[in-house]
Amino acid sequence: MDVPFDPWSPAFVADPYPALTELRERGRVHWFEPTRQWLVPHHADVSALLRDRRLGRTYLHRFSHEEFGRTPPPPEHDPFHTLNDHGLLDLEAPDHTRIRRLVTKAFTPRTVQALEPVVRRIAAGLVADFKKAGGGDLLAEIAEPLPVEVIAEMLGIPRSDRHLLRPWSADICGMYELNPSQDTAARAVRASVEFTGYLRELIAVRRAEPGEDLISALISAHDEGDRLSEQEMISTCVLLLNAGHEATVNTTANGWWTLFRHPEQLAALRADHSLLSTAVEELMRYDTPLQLFERWVLDDIEIDGTVVPRGSELALLFGSANRDAARFPHPDTLDLARPDNPHVAFGAGIHYCLGAPLARVELAASFGELLREAPGMRLVEEPRWKRGFVIRGLEELRVEL
Fold it and tell me: Rounded to whole angstroms, how far apart are CA atoms 390 and 16?
């Protein structure tokens, strides 16, 4: 039976939620032949499976490609996979445990706290320029530069090089979409080679002349004599950039587009800025920036009577989980004061987003600054959505002040 799921359809990408509601109504797990994945749409299942150690972001800590019934990626993709496979996002214990422990020693709550005034300063500067121009593309002028500037500041990337980061990240992240094309893969490989080479040189500079930046902290982080390898440091820096801004960029732009379509909620937020913290959580729930997260089945599991065998791949549907009426009362209603909001936008379990506290600081800073300095901001034209569904975002968001 066909399932109501079409991630390559512009109409579906523009508004996937009616189809995702139908998917939940049809059952708890569905086979999707085009990607050969099992779709999991319910909040309770997604939340539990994110914590289930019978699943993994990788299988290579237990099986070879051949043992797992999978074809190895082509050798020409090696630069991407070397970069990707040494980062926290795609590792399992014991490597994940070791690297996360070391990275956490460098990326501490104190680090995030120290960045708060930096984030506010960058947000204030961007909004001031935006205000002076009378508006423009909020995505390009506010949503994108803020998290990229913050991550660059944190890593100690020289200002003259920061323009390189967003294109590298966009090309690498193209590989996380479903069934990426050969051209997408080629761009991701090229960006992986260039970004890796750039960071290798920067790490060498920081070894010789340590600073106050996160790269210097990663170099010095150690635990019982254990240190990060150079490749682990490179992969960690790339992950911090990619994961550390894609969600923030799309929550910002998607969030304002949501607010413009809910004028009563926007008016309530403009009248009471103390709603901001719950508003940010609700905007992430209501229109989730990362719609789908994949897991490999390392040991047979059963979902609602369906045995999903080892070697299968699950597609955990975050956007669907966050609209599940079994967990969220009136899930299709935007409620910026929603008190109980256990959304899964940042994941769960051992792969819960390391940068979630920083993302929340950035979102509060940009939304807060725009609410204060551009209280009459309004939409100029209805935006178009990018083609991708996994990382779902707008092409642009044009506004005037």
Answer: 11
Which residues, given as ranges, of the chain have pLDDT below 70?
1, 223-224
How much is the pLDDT for 112? 87
Tokens of 97: 């445990």
| CA angle (166 as vertex; 150, 367 as ends), nearest 5 | 45
Residue among 291, 294, 321, 318 at smallest CA distance from 393: 291
> In the 8-state DSSP scheme, what is residue 93?
T
- The DSSP code for 341 is -
State which H helix or E strand residue 303 sits in.
strand 301-303
Rounded Cα–Cα distance for residues 27 and 44 (Å): 13
Write the DSSP assignment of 250-271 as a string of letters.
Answer: HHHHHHHHHHHT-HHHHHHHHH
155: tokens are: 């890593």
What's the predicted TM-score (pTM) here?
A: 0.94
132 Cβ contact list (under 8 Å, min separation 6):
none
Q: Which domains does the chain have, with CATH numbers?
A: 10-400 (1.10.630.10)
Q: What pLDDT is recorded for position 2? A: 85
In DSSP terms, which residues pair with 32 in a beta bridge? Answer: 37
What does the pLDDT read at residue 1? 57
Q: In the prediction, which pLDDT does 247 show?
A: 84
Cross-strand pairs, 294: 315
Q: What share of the chain is helix, strand, coil (3-state, %, to 5)?
A: 55, 10, 35
SS3 355: coil
Q: SS3 for 62?
A: coil
State pLDDT tens for residues 171-218.
999 999 999 999 999 999 999 999 999 999 999 999 999 999 999 999
Give the bridge partners for 391, in sequence order.
290
The β-bridge partners of 314 are 38, 295
Spatial separation of the C-alpha atoms in residues 50 and 283, rounded to whole Å: 22
According to the model, what pLDDT value does residue 7 have? 97
Query: How many residues in the chain?
Result: 401
